[in-house]
Batch of 2 targets.
Target 1
Amino acid sequence: MSSPSAPADPTLADAVSEADFLALQRLMLEQSAILLDRRRSYLVDVRLRPVARRYQLPGITELVRALRPGDHPQLMADTVDALTTNETSFLLTPATMEALVEEVLPAMVAGRDPGQPLTVWSAACSSGQEPYSFAVLLREHHRALAEAGQVRILASDLSPTMVMRCAAGRFSRIEVRRGLPSEFLDRYFQRDGRDHVAVDELRAMLSPLVINLVQPWPGIPRCHLVILRNVLRFFPEPVRYQVIERVRRTALAPGGRLLLGSDDPILGPSDGFEPVGPAPLACYRLAEAE
Ligand SMILES: C[S@@+](CC[C@H](N)C(=O)[O-])C[C@H]1O[C@@H](n2cnc3c(N)ncnc32)[C@H](O)[C@@H]1O
């Protein structure tokens, strides 16, 4: 049993005060729609301490005080960047790959107008494992299209740090062990010290961009596939559906596909989408107009 003075929840026994946490929660909602979870406030402390140090601020309270709107745009951007959760992996496990190769890629390729580039948007791509997975699959299974420069993979994230990592295409030994078969590692990545770097042909297929999903989406055309996996869960529910609706109205080509994560909202005709599966993918196409 805990002593009377101990916090009921051990994760609250960290260095972020209630007032600082609430200020950061409000700021993140305004800037990114990310709803910080009080139960995981220890992460705020861990992630913001290096930012405070970089700006020579003694602690989180001083950092929060320095974040008055308009005062320090770079500190604000660095704080938002540091508070994102960037967990990701390659998407090429046997079951996922089979579903993508058998069902999703053929429908996308068939759905585009001849001569039009095949356009994929990985809309919260973190350090890039997701868009590089599609680059690998398209080179493997639609090589002529890829070699003719007819594939465009837009890889965007809110976090400039992640977008830079994605552009570099550099992955650690641990990262390449997660969801990337060794035959593709050998074929499409070169060893550089302890890391593995995507070959030029793969990197050339990607256009890395910083895009905040709750701000304007400059340069996003109508795409044959939009990948929006494992990001909606960080947003309050109304924002999740606003983003999905915006994808439907502005970012999908006719017949385009939307790929969500398995824990993301399940969509149906009332959202303007029909599930097309197959398991284990949460893949949708635009619903037929009534
Ligand atoms: C958990 S990762 C998911 C990465 C990848 N889609 C996957 O499923 O493996 C979530 C990503 O969403 C990004 N993110 C969070 N809020 C965002 C926003 N408002 N706009 C764009 N990206 C955002 C984060 O920076 C982070 O890289």
Target 2
Amino acid sequence: MRPFRYHRPAGVAEAVALVDAAPNAAYLAGGTNLVDLMKLGVQRPDLLVDVNRLPLDTVDPLPDGGLRIGATVRNSDLAAHPLVRRHHPLLTRALLAAASGQLRNMATTAGNLLQRTRCVYFQDTARACNKREPGSGCAARHGQNRDLAILDWSEWCVATNPSDLAVALVALDAVVEAYEPDGPRDVPLTGLHRSPGEHPERETTLAHGALITAVRVPALPFAHRSTYRKVRDRASFAFAVGSVAAALDLNGDVVRDVRLAYGAVAHRPWRAYRAEETLRGRPFTADLAARAADAELAAARPLTHNAFKVPLIRNITVRALTDLAGAVGR
Ligand SMILES: Cc1cc2nc3c(=O)[nH]c(=O)nc-3n(C[C@H](O)[C@H](O)[C@H](O)COP(=O)(O)OP(=O)(O)OC[C@H]3O[C@@H](n4cnc5c(N)ncnc54)[C@H](O)[C@@H]3O)c2cc1C
Ligand code: SF4
């Protein structure tokens, strides 16, 4: 690991000013992703600005019934929080499906959203990777790409976003509160992560130096009827091969409203708007759920080794929605 400076700021404004002033500075939260990448030589910050002691570690109810989650709330604390468990079980499920107990005790809300891709070539400094080293090529495009994208990839990068929490938050229309060098800014979670395009090294729409301070989750009347279904190579402690976050509201058997988002299919957590449109206002059946997934996946362009993801996502969509429909009916 290369030498680096370390600073623990007294407040948010000081933290942002420090990172803004240093082109190669990074915020340090739980360190479960950043420190690993520093050890591998993938990230080489010369200044770490530690956000762990900033007062950003509470979960607070909002007047509209929603939640405001501080950036440094640990994944374990968020999953176990009574308001989250009661009103947003989707978040608890997504969080508990991720990593291990020890990692969740360290990992923070903002760190989870901004964790880097698990593409193996990104982590291997001997291989070409446009994300790590712009202009060097993409070893995954025609290499081992089983775990990578089927939607919205570019010739420059076919990586996926690995966060489970981000998929759930995208489904819930969450909003990121960022403190940028120019001042505070709200960023809808659906607009936080970028498509890879020609610049996969630019992963978010945040300005350099932006500090995420909180995530707001608006009230959703049917949020308690929601689920997260994740398929992975091992039963625990593994990243998603494909995942779905779903919430369903039925009026009789007619879909009054629905939320659907997919994980491990694209460079960003994927809100499945076409599938939602297909479902809304129609009597719910497993066949309708399958047609909804097909509508979303019509745009899929599988790589050499991951065509299986298309039926996988279709199947977990049907399963998640029929489970929810059954629960609503009871
Ligand atoms: C073995 C293993 C298995 C895992 N499995 C899963 C899994 O199945 N699902 C899953 O979702 N995750 C998984 N993870 C990833 C884990 O959840 C992330 O490493 C963790 O959430 C990152 O949070 P952190 O607080 O440690 O972030 P850090 O490592 O401290 O930071 C990550 C990034 O976020 C930036 N950052 C941190 N806080 C802020 C802030 N407030 N504002 C702006 N930038 C900030 C940092 O600069 C850095 O770039 C796994 C990790 C490991 C090591
Ligand atoms: S898919 Fe993206 S992260 Fe992976 S090697 Fe290609 S450019 Fe790098």
